[in-house]
Structures are given as C-alpha cells and as structure tokens.
Amino acid sequence: MDFLRPASWEEALAAKAGHPTAVPIAGGTDVMVEINFDHRRPEYLLDLNRVRDLYEWEVGEESVRLGASVPYTKIMDHLRAELPGLALASHTVASPQIRNRGGVGGNLGTASPAGDAHPALLAAGAEVEVESVRGSRLIPIDEFYTGVKRNALAADELIRAVHVRKADGPQQYSKVGTRNAMVIAVCAFGLALHPSSRTVRTGIGSAAPTPVRAKTAEEFLNAALEEGGFWDNGRVITPSVAQQFADLCAAACNPIDDVRGTASYRRHAVGIMARRTLTWTWESYRGTEGRTQRKGGVA
Ligand SMILES: Cc1cc2nc3c(=O)[nH]c(=O)nc-3n(C[C@H](O)[C@H](O)[C@H](O)COP(=O)(O)OP(=O)(O)OC[C@H]3O[C@@H](n4cnc5c(N)ncnc54)[C@H](O)[C@@H]3O)c2cc1C
C-alpha cells in the first residue's frame, strides 16, 4: 500500500486526479477500522492530515463553512450557538478520543446510514463543497447520499467543506442506542425549527438505506403551524398534530431488521423521537428565544 502525503489542498487534488482509486484518510476512525479488519486493502492511501485548511471553519452571515476535517470536539466547543443540532449530534459520537480525530468530512465520506452528522445536516440544511482538478461544486445535502454507504462524489473529487445554515431557531438531536456512549445508532432523529422561513426540517438516521428527511411530515406540520397561526401566537402544538407528525416521520422510514434492532422497533422509535424533539424545540421557541424571533417577525 502506497502512502500519498500532500502538503496542500492543490497537491491533494492533483494526487487524487493521478490516483482516482486512492482512499483519502482524515481522522482515520473509519478507514483504519476497515484496513485493520482487512475489509479494504487500497492500493493508495491519501493522507489529508497535512492539509491545514481542512481543519478551519468560518462563520458567515447565513452559514458556517466547516472544513472537512474539523473534529467533532471543535464543533462542540466552538459552534454550539451557530450549529446546535450538529453540536448535539457530535456529543453522541463514540468517545472523546474518536471525537478528537473524526469529523463531518469523514462521516460524509463513509455515508453510513447510521452516521450521526447526517440527520443534523439534513435538518439544518447544508451543502457539501467538493472539488477536483476539474473545478468545484456544491452538492445539496439531500442529493449527497446515493445508497448504502455511497455518496455523490466522483472518483477524482474530495470533500473540502460543508456549508451548514446557521440556526435561526431551536434544534434537537435524539439517538437510540443500547447504551449512552460508544454506540452506533439503532436509529436517530434531527429536527430544526426555522422561524425565519416558518418551516420545520427533519433528518432520520439508521432507518433507511440512506439518511433521509421526512418530507411529507414536514409539509404536514408546516401547513398545520401556518393554518393555526402558531408561529405568531406561540400556542402549544395540539397533541393530535404532534402525533400525526410523529406517525408521518415513522412512515418515512424504510428500515431493515439487523443485529441492532428490528425494522418495526426502528419505525416506532423514530415516531417517539419525532414527537419528543418537536415538543422540546417548540417549548424552546415559545420561550424567550422564540418570543424574540416572533417579535422580530411581526415588526
Ligand atoms: C470506536 C468507534 C466508534 C464510533 N462511533 C461512531 C458514532 O457513534 N457515530 C458516528 O457517526 N460514527 C462513529 N464512528 C465512525 C467514525 O468515527 C465517524 O464516521 C467519523 O466521522 C469519521 O471521520 P474520520 O475523519 O475519522 O474519517 P476517516 O476514517 O479518515 O474517513 C472516512 C471516510 O471518508 C473518506 N474521507 C475522509 N475525508 C475525506 C475528504 N476530505 N474527501 C473525501 N473523502 C474523505 C475516507 O476515504 C473514508 O472513506 C465510530 C468509529 C469508531 C472507531
């Protein structure tokens, strides 16, 4: 196995163009497991650890541009206000050691349906910045996941950054596992309220071949909130609306039975998480944070 060690982003792109089968390695917390278990024996490893730009982030007006290799601990420590859903999801990843090494770029590269960043990215709204020597493009997060552990990257492309919309309202992330730490999700759910556009977005993990949004559930809830004037009057969401939202989220799943859980358990748990995260975020919106947003909206 040859080891390619570019010192800059340009060198990394040139190396990937020259060796399209090269496997990029960032934190290595997925790649090294695969190599150790002999599940993968790449001809070339493309080490991205010397490309320092990948460890940087920028907070812009509307979004955060998060370098592909920014580790989860940095997101938790520095971006909790801007990206609360992703920070909560980061908390649930593995252990401090893994969170110090692994990052969102690697989670996207692996594109496992169980990856914890995905539901949070889907709910917040994100675009993946990918580049090759041919140029760069932004892939909407909904179009990034193309199959089980497959993504929209071309063979010569690398992930440079992820542009995640800054939170304009409360966000939540919930995960079911057999214990509280060091656990792959049985299923997971992300929810973000977007008061500025009066919309709700969701993300479901580990309950379909790819991470998915529950779009019918979102449309139902958006219409119900609009009709009832909820964004302005801040009333408690009626239990029947919350339950129908939960049922539609469960219906958006297309899970399998596996060692971690059955399909029917996953559907059930997604419904519960959808109802709970809706209650938590809506309660938060109705509180101080929400009142400020509503006043801003009315003025
Ligand atoms: C003990 C343990 C526990 C874990 N627990 C969790 C968990 O709870 N939740 C969870 O989501 N994950 C978990 N993981 C998986 C892993 O930590 C995450 O997926 C992490 O985000 C991977 O990031 P990384 O930088 O280490 O990726 P790497 O292992 O370096 O790479 C992962 C994949 O992405 C590709 N890649 C990396 N960077 C780029 C780039 N810039 N452009 C293109 N492709 C790229 C690689 O080629 C590879 O295919 C766990 C892993 C271990 C070992």
Shape: globular
pLDDT < 50 runs, ≥5 residues: 295-299
| Average pLDDT figure | 95
The ordered string of helix (H) and strand (E) elements is EHEHEEEHHHHHEEHEEEEEEHHHHH
Strand order of the largest sheet: 4-5-10-6-7
Which kinds of small molecule does this entry bind, naming each only once? flavin-adenine dinucleotide
Helical coverage, percent range: 40-55%
Query: Distance between the terminal alpha carbons, to the nearest Å?
Result: 62 Å
Count the DSSP helices: 13
Rg value: 20 Å
Proportion of beta-strand residues: 15-25%
Task: Give an account of the 3D structure.
The protein has 299 residues and is of the alpha+beta class. It contains 13 helices and 13 strands. The protein starts with a strand and ends with a helix. The structure holds flavin-adenine dinucleotide (FAD). The site of flavin-adenine dinucleotide (FAD) has 29 residues, from β2, α2, α5, α6 and β10.
